[in-house]
Amino acid sequence: MTSTILYTHAIIITVNEKREIYQDGSILVTENIIKDIGVSSKLLAKYPNVQVHDLSNHIIIPGLISTHMHCVQSLFRGTADDCDLITWMCDRIWVMQGNILPEEAYAGARLSIAEMLLGGTTTFLESLWAERYGFDQLVKAVEESGIRGCLGKVVMDVNPNQPAFRNKMHKGLVEGGESLESAIKMWEQFDGAAEGRVKVWFGARTPGGVSTAFLTRVCAEAKARDIHITMHCLEEEMDHEVFREFDMTPMEYCDSIGLLSKNTVLIHMCWVGGDDISRLKRTETNIAHCPASNMKLASGFCPVPQLLKEGVNVGIGCDGAPCNNMLDLFQEMRLAALIHKGNTRDPKVVSAEEVLEMGTIKGAKALGLDGEGGIGSLEIGKKADFVGIELKKAHQIPNYDPVATVVYATSAGDVDLVIIDGKVVVEKGILKTMDEAKVMEEGIIAGRAVIKRSGLEKNIVPKWPLIKE
């Protein structure tokens, strides 16, 4: 029997082509598709016999889309705070990730996904799922939770001339050229799984740490099979040293190996500039902006105002829990709207409307999911992925401009309802597809086990004296 529900009496921010907002709007959902959207009085009269779900005093937005994520890292939240990037990565995160077992990776993925769902993130891009984690474990977590996942399987070799700090990568994370063949097998086996909610990507390691010949091969294989690629790039100013060795600008190099395209998401990009921005626009390459991570690790400022002005597509991401420490896209949107104002001393740059686009329709475009039958906006024919925010807390009131309320006065804890593919995954703030308490308990157990196996028990402690007895 076909399921049809009319969600009524909400303020609906459609993010459609006209950027229309319905003051008292309704959405008709049949199975997993939006069949109609409009003013509540008209839709209630038009569909008198359908099931009604009253969303009075709610703002409805398209499901939020995180264009950069490390699912396994939620096990390590709070383990590397206030560190420089090299210490953070080489002495803590790589060590722990190199000691993870598949069942622990599964626990980390479930913890990340639970947090994302409860906070209104309906789609995410995992950037570097390692061979040792077990790719099937990540697919399983996506399938059972109801979320959408673009899953980047690590592809890498070892460049003998890589920067010295990359030689400190834990041996448990080092993969050879066979990682590409493994990723292709994962794509053949799992792309389109979970009723189409799983997409398999290549998660490429950064230039300098990987040989040019290998990256060129990765890009060729991706183009031949229409597989998307995500890669960290220009996160730190010192990354420019790598590209100087190639005697090319960073984006000239990336273009020369076939990386730049509409099927690529480059992460961070704090140190891109000049003609390289025009090259990004010309090749339709996408950027994942991660403001909290960039601030916490003191990486720098992604030039979002310039990128947007040039017409480059910019999505937004949380990155991993150890460099954030929350997977809250509302926080990311707020930060993205604030930090560039302060950095440029211009209160008009990167508006609330622009960052909401980054968290929805531009994120969908970055993942290749914005077209007909896709996601990122609330329109007839698109997938029923949306989030309900109930206006019941003092920090949200009064609500004169719903976009400003969403961006500047809303957090993950304000999410009341999450619909993905037409199915309710969060209702009244409660996760329906997983046992939240069990997910948290398993995450705690897994995190402690990995830290112990990594030999970091004495290092990961409070900086101030801890009194136990």
Automatic annotation (TrEMBL):
Keywords: Hydrolase, Metal-binding, Zinc. Residues 59-425 form the Amidohydrolase-related domain. SUPFAM superfamilies: Composite domain of metallo-dependent hydrolases, Metallo-dependent hydrolases. It comes from the Eukaryota. GO terms for molecular function: deaminase activity; hydrolase activity, acting on carbon-nitrogen (but not peptide) bonds, in cyclic amidines; metal ion binding. Pfam families: Amidohydro_1. This is Amidohydrolase-related domain-containing protein. It comes from Lachnellula hyalina. Gene3D superfamilies: Metal-dependent hydrolases (3.20.20.140), Urease, subunit C, domain 1 (2.30.40.10). InterPro entries: Amidohydro-rel, Metal-dep_hydrolase_composite, Metal_Hydrolase, MTA/SAH_deaminase.
